Amino acid sequence: MGAVIYFTGIIFSLIIMNLIATLLKRYLFKSVPLKQNNPQYKLFKEIPTLKSYPLIGHSYLFFPGAKYKSERLTEAFVDISRTLGPIFRLQLGATDMVVTLNPDDSRTLFQNEGRTPKRPAFAALVHYRTKAFNSVGVVPGNGEEWYKMRKGVTPLLQHQVINPYKKQQQEIAKIFTDYVKLHRGENFVLQDIYSHLLKFTIEAISVVSPGHHFHCLFNDNEETQTIIDASINFMDGLHRTLMEPPLWKIWKTAGYKKLETSHNTIYKILRSHLEDIEKQYHKDPEKLKEMHPYMYSLFSNDQISLEDKIMLAIEIFLGGIDATATTIAFTCYYLSRDRDVQEIARSSLSEGTDFLKACIKETLRLSPTAGGNSRYLINDTIMSGYFVPKETLVLSLHSGLSKDNNIFNEAEKYYPQRFMKDTRENFHRFASLPFGHGPRMCPGKRVAENEMVILLAEVSTVHCVVGNTVINFS
């Protein structure tokens, strides 16, 4: 959900921010120092587009009551592509944005993002964090500051850092299966599986960051509920500040207050535990390295401040809650709809977890937590035969690509076998990128994958079927 909020919110905030700005200078295309009659490509202004209007450009497409809804951008952009083709240009206020549903363009995009990839930021979050903590973090950051902060989370992609957490996460997964058996109601139905999975993901990520086991599943203590409420409110506040005019720059809007209050709540809770970790680091660093390898790597990094370390720990914690719970819930849903696939998942466990990993990849193909990847190009480049100048904002719509029948066989079908070695389909590797790619690839990718595989391996021992909107665990 958090990634979806980013995807829809950033696009809508571009619309709002450009509408309210006084446009002193506006362009339809950028001049390029290339021959105008070059037969190898078409000009930027020739990229297909829809009718636009002065000042508002194509923003009218997403006005209240208009044809498209800003919260359903994938459907909107896929529909537009049916008319204009796999690449098109939208003018949102003063911003020209290129949207592409061509996997070759996706590859080109990542080849032209540079050492410090730039993307639209969470403006309200940047404003709040800069003012309150003088530290932005890695998620909304850009440029050299982002690069410095990114080094603080890169260790999470190293197996020697994340593998030591597997034993604890396996224990948590076993506890969760007992939790499911206890909380499933009449006819073995577990209502609102997502809310239950939030407790699991909080518990599973907490052993990694902030290195404190919160014990959410069977201990309904005040701190646990506070964390759950604050994480939900944080996402809601972030969404509101992205979807409304940036009046928070002038006064604290309701959305900004929600963002600020929830973030501050999480900050206070995690800071207290991180201060304990810092003491452990100074007292016995080797023991901390053994018990909490990521916390050790974070506190041994002398290139970033204590506030930066706290901010990174918060981002890893928050980033490991919502999207992971959502993906597990969807995977349970897809498995519960197909008894054959569910049986393969269960029976294959004796040979390893490769099939479960394929199930997760297939879930993220059909129901990605992020709609796409957007970047400002650092080079002039060619996409789908059109010239696209540097500094142009380009969105590769992976949520559309991943369900394209021209790329995947029976794209709407849940078929994990397409990701297995022996039955793998020959699809474009840049068509489905749920964790992104390159320097800005999700740093929590391997942590999340471990959590999901470990839990699904445990849950697979409990039979489940779907009925309407609930999952029956029997």
Describe this structure in words.
The radius of gyration is 23 Å and the shape is globular. Helix 10 crosses helix 13. 49% of the residues lie in helices and 8% in strands. The two termini are 28 Å apart. It has a 4-stranded mixed sheet with strand order 1-2-7-4, with helices on both faces. The chain has a domain at 2-125 and 369-416: Uridine Diphospho-n-acetylenolpyruvylglucosamine Reductase, domain 2, CATH 3.30.43.20. By secondary structure, it is of the alpha+beta class. Mean pLDDT is 88; it is low at 20-36. The protein contains 18 helices and 9 strands. Its cofactor is heme. InterPro entries: CYP11_CYP27_families (IPR050479), Cyt_P450 (IPR001128), Cyt_P450_CS (IPR017972), Cyt_P450_E_grp-I (IPR002401), Cyt_P450_sf (IPR036396). The chain crosses the membrane at residues 6-24. Heme binds at residue 442. Belongs to the cytochrome P450 family.
